[in-house]
Design a protein that fits this description.
- This protein is of the alpha/beta class and 442 residues long.
- The protein has 3 domains: 8-50 and 208-355, Molybdenum Cofactor Biosythetic Enzyme, Chain A (3-Layer(aba) Sandwich), CATH 3.40.980; 79-169, Molybdopterin biosynthesis moea protein, domain 3 (Molybdopterin biosynthesis moeA protein, domain 3, Beta Complex), CATH 2.170.190.11; 365-436, Beta Barrel (Beta-clip).
- It is 23% helix and 30% strand.
- The protein has helices at 8-19, 31-41, 43-48, 114-119, 190-197, 237-248, 262-275, 293-300, 337-355, 408-413, and strands spanning 51-55, 68-69, 79-80, 84-87, 97-106, 125-129, 141-144, 149-150, 154-158, 168-169, 180-182, 203-207, 211-217, 221-222, 233-234, 251-258, 278-282, 301-307, 310-311, 315-322, 327-333, 365-369, 373-374, 380-389, 395-399, 416-420, 426-427, 432-437.
- The strands form 8 sheets. The chain has a 6-stranded mixed sheet with strand order 7-4-6-5-9-8, with no helix packed on it. A 6-stranded mixed sheet has the order 16-13-17-21-20-18, with helices on both faces. A 5-stranded mixed β-barrel has the order 22-25-24-26-28.
- The longest helix has 19 residues, at 337-355.
- The two termini are 32 Å apart.
- The mean pLDDT is 90.
Length: 442
Amino acid sequence: MKPSFPDTTQFQEQWRTQQGGDLFNPKALQIDVAKEFMRSYTHDFRINLGGETIPLEESLGRVLADPIIAIMNVPAANNSAMDGYAFSSAILTKRSRVELTVIGKQMAGQARQQELLNQFDPHSHCVRIMTGAIMPSCCDTVIPQELATVNPHGITFDASKIAAGDNLRLQGEDIRLGDEVLHPGRILRPSDLGLIASMGFATVKVKKRITVAYFSTGDEVTPLGQEIREGALFDSNRYTLLGMLTQLGVQLIDLGIVRDDPIALQKVFSTAANQADAIITSGGVSVGEADFTKKIMQDLGDVAFWTLAIKPGRPMAFGKINTTDSSAVLFGLPGNPVAVMVTFYQFVQDILLYMSGANHTPNVFRAKFDGIFTKKPGRTEFIRGILSRDPSGDLWVKPHGHQGSGILRSMSEADCLITLLATQSQISHGELVDISVINCLI
């Protein structure tokens, strides 16, 4: 049975009391307060989400459920970082030009050769060694083969070109036995898979994938492949959501297009709540909007309708949809294409990753603002930006020429969202601003 969600209205009042008075104002909700509320609301789901053990090769992008504890040292033994010749650094203090006799060879993957140790003279001998090969215990330095001159009896090299301990990888240098090398909540990266494999783990325990249902609503929304009538529009928001959700690695349920019909809407909301952990819709949440979506949300669920102090994307619904046996958290996003993406990147992405058990903090960069921009104080604005570097290497961001909330092309052409704080009213040329990369998870 999947984790459940609290009563929205009651939780909202409790949270308002705990956080302090007027901080929570649904009619003009600041972005940080809205995010913190959503995290608090979904916290029980996060901590109760179960885990599963899967093959390591299937774990890329999954959320680690248990810590990875090193069961061995990596490297397991002292080894060579170069192809060359292993020797004892004791001779470096006595000679400027070193001549050594090669008495054997140590290959990568080959066990330590005891016979080499028995006959090794640290003042006159060396061992031919390959990258990754175990170092003979009587040696502590490797001269790279390109710095050594080979002669019939062995090698010679300039002692000034090498220092004691050079090109030696120490046992446990990368990982020590007992280290917690990866922490729960990490979204596994390609390097993490290699790190886990280096300790011999073939499987890994990860959090279960959360399931997200999404659909479009409205009689005006036309499926791709059909002839579009006057006044209608193609179903673009659903494909935008598909792309953004796919990058998060969640399981998806695409419920298509739902017409403005109460029975059809009620059925699809119930289906989504039974099958998914989260539901995402776009449109139908504005104040006074004449459609059925908002009413169905209220009838079937426990949903709060907010007016966020942001631009674009002011109207938003958040809460849960209930059925007899289940419930799912609901994100009711605005209908304008750009507002859908902005609210997704600023709220939904963060909360879905939080629900998934991930310890994820989006990277925010700083860049110099190219131009002059004015805005109304009191709300956070997100404008589309294009990045560049000047000859000195400084990062600059220039607002895209089209900032309308219905111009989806501008989101495709932009590199980032520029965050203009609620306290700001004018941004000057060259002023540092926060930017967040879009169209990818970072």
